[in-house]
Amino acid sequence: MVHRITLFGVRYEGILEVTESRTFFQTLCSGVGPAKGLGMGLLSIAPA
Known about the structure:
Largest sheet: none
Pfam family, one: CRISPR_assoc
Shape: elongated
Distance between the termini: 48 Å
Structural class: mainly alpha
Helix content: 10-25%
Number of helices: 1
InterPro entries: CRISPR-assoc_prot_Cse3
Order of helices and strands: H
Protein name: Type I-E CRISPR-associated protein Cas6/Cse3/CasE
Number of strands: 0
């Protein structure tokens, strides 16, 4: 039996304004979305 999944990646480029620093830090550490266990959901950030 073959199980298939479909994953979609998104690339966002721009300036992010953080209004809730605690929530942002938790999200940065834990990742975003249900596919983070498969290497998706990672965030790369840099100072503007």
